[in-house]
Amino acid sequence: MLESAGALAFPRGAHVDGHTGAAPREGVAAPQLRLDDLLDDLQAQIARVRATQQRVHGLLEAVLAVGTDLDLAVVLRRVVQSAVTVVDAEYGALGVLGEEGGLKQFVTVGMDEETIAAIGHYPQGRGILGLLIREPRSLRLADLTTHPDATGFPTGHPAMHSFLGAPVRVREAVFGNLYLTGKRGGAEFDTDDEMVLATLAAAAGVPIDNARLYDAVQRRERWLTASGELTRSLLRGTDPAEVLDAFTATVREMADASLVTLAVPVAGTSVLFVEAAAGQDTDSVRGLVLPDTTPAAKVYSSGETIITDDWSTDPRTEYDTSPLPLGPAFLVPLGTPEHVRGVLQVSGFPRRPAFADAVVAMIAGFANHAALALEIAEHRRAAEQLLIVSDRDRIAGDLHDLAVQRLFSAGLSLQSLRAQCADRPRATVRIEGVVDDLDEAIKIIRSTVHALKPHDTTTHTATNTGLRTRLVTETGRASTALGFSPALRMTGPLDTLVADDIADQLLAVLREALTRTARHAHAGTVDVAAEATNTRLTLRVTADGRGIDPAHTRSSGLTDLRTRATELGGTLTLTPRRPTGTTLEWTVPLPAGNG
Known about the structure:
With 595 residues, the chain is α+β, with helices and mostly antiparallel strands.
């Protein structure tokens, strides 16, 4: 028994006194080595458990962080930031899918603003990003640049190799995709990273859905509040121009846009001009006439909404005359497709994400409500004007039937009395004076009756057409001689404050200025601006090219323009345009009470 035990403990023939022989040392070392290996394995296992525990804790913290806010933009950024943290990536992004399958929004983490600006436009959903859109499941690559679907990086884009992606689903529908690149330390993403990201993507769907619902409720509340205020303003009788300015300002706030414009047709034509604007540099777009090749004209004629992710690169905006750099934009008709009253354009800053579908739908609904409110207000004003006309007609009839007839009867009575006072000269003179006063009063009342009577507007000729329409027609005629269409801007109450004789003078000046430009200036661009205030009317024609030689400023044509200004108490000035060209400004006062 002991021998057997000794045989298990020591090899046969080995000395146990420890004085000589190598066998006893080898017998002791072998178990020690196995024990060290076991301890190393145990420590590695403990390290893996701890790492897993830390990753689980990090995942839980990430899920909690994502769900602590209801602002959709904040939630989306936190989702990306949490994903970058839990898988230890250098760059992260969340691409939100649009209705047509491309990316309509791209939320990035890990790049500064300068890098983003250098890259330019956000991805459209091609290459590796498009692969994840077409096949919405987790994707892990050691080097994304070697994948067959890789399309390369734009100029200024940082180098990226290791890649990890996962779809984000909201109510079983794919909301977008998480894209992570650049595992820190130069390593590759492993299966644990893939599992953690998939778990986070699944958990992120709930807070994203909550944020979307909350955002929808907030938009609905803003819409109802703004619609109510708009309706109250119109029904209170507020000036429609003031209401439209407030309307565009409200839309800009609701959509968080950089510029909002409302284009309406020039009376009697289908040509649009910007009636109201809110946002950056509104003075440069207010009153601008839009050619029939612009997207606004297409929306007006078709009644359909146009959406673009980047105004500056969209081929549909090739003939746009806006002087401002614009990013994403959408245009909606004001009214129904059968009766479009105008076109509302909402534009964002360059390189900003596209407007969400919910925002477009909200603004479109608000625009339809505004169109209905405007129509109701117009019917109300028409009814009020009809009532006023009826009252004035009744008053005119009463004055004619009662006051004039009684005064005329009194005059006849006095004339009869004058014959009876022939022997009293002083009384006769006084009676004749009263009769003359009665005749003058009758003339005044008849003049008042004529002014109160509604005038027939069906006999107006072409010369009585509104000044806005005539300006559009005149600049359109000049396009043949110039070889291009001049840019036209009209501001102020041109149709109501400018009398026909002054309008005729302004159009003659414009015609001469455009003719001289076409013949002598060799211009590539011409800007025409007509502005009316309560006191002054200004026409400004600016052209590049050679401009007008100072030695020829006393030519017969310019003398005629100056004469037209001085006869009306105004001025004509010519100033150089930088770097080339000339600006002609013709200004005349408007008579008080005109229009």
